[in-house]
Write a structure and sequence with these properties.
The chain is of the alpha/beta class. It has 2 domains: 6-194 and 364-378, Rossmann fold, CATH 3.40.50; 210-361, Glycogen Phosphorylase B (Rossmann fold). Helix content is 40%, strand content 13%. The protein has 14 helices and 12 strands. The protein has helices at 15-18, 32-40, 49-66, 79-85, 123-143, 146-153, 229-237, 271-277, 287-295, 307-319, 327-332, 335-346, 348-361, 366-378; strands at residues 6-9, 23-26, 70-74, 89-94, 171-174, 190-192, 217-221, 244-248, 263-266, 280-283, 300-302, 322-324. It has a 6-stranded parallel β-sheet, sandwiched between helices. It has a 4-stranded parallel β-sheet with strand order 3-4-5-6, sandwiched between helices. The chain has a two-stranded parallel ribbon with strand order 1-2. Helix 3 (49-66) packs across helix 4. Pfam families: EryCIII-like_C. Keywords: Glycosyltransferase, Transferase.
């Protein structure tokens, strides 16, 4: 569209950006192992105040050096602060789960109540959901009150809290669909654009030959933030299974050995290429991978490791296109996964429900819609 695009970050993953010919400005990021470790352990105070200050200073330095017309952030929880301080337009890509307008609780406080006592479709349950949402947001904002303190310090027009810190000051692009993640009271500057998933240009590996794979074909990916123990436990069940498996490790160490015709192993692979031909996707419950699977009408088994992924998998199960396994249960008993694979493959309702979601997703063109919204905002 003729716009100059510059990226900012400080991660080994920026090689994917520079390989595409874009400039990457160095910008401080927290240690991902520490950050995700805090999140996995359930710490509401997922990052300390000093890290927030350091990120904020790095943001402002990048903005004042590059002088952008608009900043687009993805998961940068200081951007809503820094763009107000630097007085520059700001858009953010975010999932519904990380906004104050989500219609479903992030942490379901009342799920222990049996559905036979309170129907999940009743007014009472909807009232409990609203109470749940209010309580969890107030708790999170109170524990991570550094955002509100900084908002007051800089006298910001739009106060930033832990709940809304990932959203945009001027535009928020919701990389979701309402059928999967509904909202309530959504403002006009929030836009459902559909999933923005990575379209890989990685060429197929030398062994790639879909017509020769025996069925069923199962694709396993735990992203780049998965748990290493997953792969060692997976190796315990693979010798006894009757399906062909393709595994993408996301560059993580994996105690696995490829087996010709049975197990194929790659650090990175074109997920769309594999999912198009597979019968089932096994993942950590990441939003991007789930949407990739649904775009091809394939069911999902998730083994979530962080709260966002657990939130995603509750929706997967509620909508009937997949199943979830608790990570600790899997690590104790890996055969749970092989049993669940058989269950999902044998029940056509999972595939049928995934294909229904595929039909909805076909109506979205997320990248084009997002680019149009950003371009109009800059004009």
């Amino acid at each position: 569209m003729g716009h100059e695009v510059v990226f900012a970050g400080e991660s080994s993953k920026t090689s994917f950006i520079s390989d595409q010919g874009f400039d990457v400005i160095r910008c401080y990021e927290p240690d991902p192992d520490l950050l995700f470790g805090n999140i996995r352990s359930g710490k509401l105070r997922f990052v300390d105040d000093e890290e927030v200050f350091r990120m904020l200073e790095a943001d402002i330095d990048v903005i004042r050096t590059s002088l952008p017309d608009i900043v687009l952030s993805d998961g940068r929880f200081t951007a809503a602060l820094s763009t107000q301080i630097a007085k520059v337009r700001h858009a953010a890509i975010v999932n519904v789960s990380s906004t104050e307008y989500r219609a479903l609780p992030y942490v379901p406080f009342f799920d222990w109540i049996p559905s036979r006592l309170i129907s999940r479709s009743s007014r009472v349950w909807k009232s409990l959901d609203r109470l749940n949402l209010s309580l969890e947001m107030k708790l999170f904002d109170n524990v991570m009150n550094i955002f509100l303190k900084l908002s007051r310090k800089y006298k910001l027009d739009r106060p930033v809290t832990a709940t809304n810190c990932l959203t945009g000051k001027d535009i928020t692009l919701l990389a979701d669909i309402p059928e999967y993640f509904p909202t309530r009271n959504l403002p006009p500057d929030y836009h459902y654009v559909g999933p923005l998933t990575w379209k890989s240009e990685i060429p197929p590996p030398p062994w790639w030959s879909p017509e020769t794979f025996s069925t069923p074909l199962v694709y396993v990916t735990m992203g780049s933030t998965g748990v290493q123990e997953f792969f060692s436990n997976l190796s315990q069940i693979l010798p006894s299974v009757h399906f062909t498996t393709i595994i993408s490790t996301g560059g993580q160490p994996a105690d696995l050995q490829a087996a010709p015709g049975k197990l194929f192993l790659e650090s990175y692979i074109d997920g769309d290429l594999v999912i198009k031909h597979c019968d089932l996707v096994i993942c950590h419950g990441g939003n991007g991978t789930i949407y990739q699977a649904l775009s091809h009408g394939k069911p999902v088994i998730g083994i979530p490791t962080i709260p966002d992924q657990k939130f995603n998998m509750r929706r997967v199960e509620a909508l009937g296109f997949g199943k979830s396994i608790d990570l600790e249960n899997f690590l104790k008993n890996p055969s749970l996964l092989s049993d669940m694979i058989k269950q999902v493959l044998a029940n056509p309702s999972f595939r049928n429900n995934a294909q229904s979601m595929q039909n909805i997703l076909n109506r979205y063109h997320a990248a084009t819609t997002s680019a149009d919204l950003l371009a109009r905002s800059c004009s």
